[in-house]
Amino acid sequence: MLPQTAQPREQKNMGNDGLSTDSLVRKIGLIADDVQTAMKREKGEEYDRRLIEDSMRRCLEYKLDAIEENMHELFTSPGTREFSQLATMLEQSRLEESAVEVGEAVELAQEFGDDSVFTGRRIFAKSKMAAMIEYLTSKGNHIYRTSLNKLLFYSDLTNYYLLGQGISGAVYYNRRFGPVADPASSILSELVNTEKIRIEPRLHTLEAAAGSDDVLSDQEKKVLDWVSDTYGKMSASEISEFSHLEMAYKFTEPNEAIAYEYGKFFKKLPPRSLIDH
Prior knowledge:
Elements: H1 21-43, H2 49-76, H3 81-111, H4 126-137, H5 145-163, E1 172-175, E2 178-181, H6 183-193, E3 197-199, E4 203-205, H7 218-231, H8 236-244, H9 247-250
Antiparallel strand pairs: 1-2, 3-4
């Protein structure tokens, strides 16, 4: 039985406090001293603190009145910055709500003993992961040990997004530097020891030793090609940082297994037509 999936990380609840009168009053009080110092420096006058707070409130009232008058145009006109910001926030909120639902579904699946949510609905196949490593390292990109796990992660979960199952059946865990499949390290070492892959210092598949053709399907190769083209040119630090931004990582607690279903929220996804022909 795999470790119990973590509850979705608690998201900040902004509520209405940012627009409330009490909130504005508190914020005015917090910065009044700094305003007093700035005015003395720029104007040479030390204004009374109470006068500063009253004047700040009046300035904000004028500004809020202007916003209220223009609110309809700001939030209904596609050309405005506010419309664009609102659309971005709405989409992010929608995705986060969907991710929470995935977390709840994963928890329910585990209660019934369904660990396939963490394996991409496949039984782990060492030969598949070895073939994935050989294929990815044969594409000419500068792939290092630290970035390989992220490429495997994106490959398995992207394949799941497109075809409803992963490629290798590996379980990926939320580790400090990004998602990691524990078997990858020993499989890579075996490929190096058998001289199928060389480290110089990047990983490189020896052309004569490449043996992925008989193991990977054409559709899986298309996914691996897309992943290689999309992420393969990233440095180890870049792809690690990028993976930390994914909901698959953010909605999973440290050292817990990552559900494949989170792959549909990746920031970069191929068109479904990728595997249609």
